[in-house]
Structures are given as C-alpha cells and as structure tokens.
Amino acid sequence: MAIENPSLEEIGAILKKAKRIAVVGLSNNPERTSYQVSEVMQQAGYEIIPVNPTIDEALGVKAVASLKDIEGHVDIVNVFRRSEQLLDVAKEFVEIDADVFWAQQGLVNEDAYNFLKEKGYTVIMDRCIKVMHAYTRNQ
CA 68 to CA 42: how far, in whole Å? Predict the structure, then answer.
C-alpha cells in the first residue's frame, strides 16, 4: 500500500483542532530543525511536549523520555527520527492513543504507515508541520 496523506483541507482541520503536540526527537539545540519547527508551532499557540530521553528540557518545557511518560491526551505526535525508527515510534503511539501520527518531511516508513492505518489512525508522512500550518492557516 502506498502512503497517502490526508488532503490539504483535512490537514488544515487537524491543525485547527489540535492543541497538544508531542515532538519525538526534539533537540534542545536552537540550530536543529526540530527545535526551529517546534518553536514556530509553540509561538503559534500549540503546547509542545519534548520527547527525548537525552535532554532535560527544550523550549522551556521539561522533556519526557517516551510518549508513555506524557500525562493527558496528545493530539499530534510529530516525529523527528530516522525513517527506520518510525515503526517503533508508531507502536508507542498506539499505546497512548493519540489522534495523529505525523512524520516530518523526508521521513517515510510503509510498515509504520500500514500498522497505524490498519488500526484506524490518521497518518501524515513526509510533510513539515510548520509548512503545512503556514499554508493551511489562511485557507
């Protein structure tokens, strides 16, 4: 099965509804893409939850080691990990029953996609959440 992302209208609706974004692989280095993208999303009003066992905090928020350490519901899990790691993240995603699995631009894993789609989850891959937010914000 090929990866098929939701339409731009659907992505816009997802971003309008979402409030909490857990960012897997968020770096505390302001020069890293994960930091820059998450900072823009935080400034746009989203609650950002850093998920990275190797840092204490990012963007002024205490980091958690894994998705399972997050209290409360998560709307979007935004992933900045290598494509081959997406299936492991997808398995943890299912355990917390978040709404949307989002793999950043350049990240694709058909096994993770199929695993999540078979369970009825919304999956977005190979798309930058910051770009999609900017694009759909004015739609």
Answer: 21
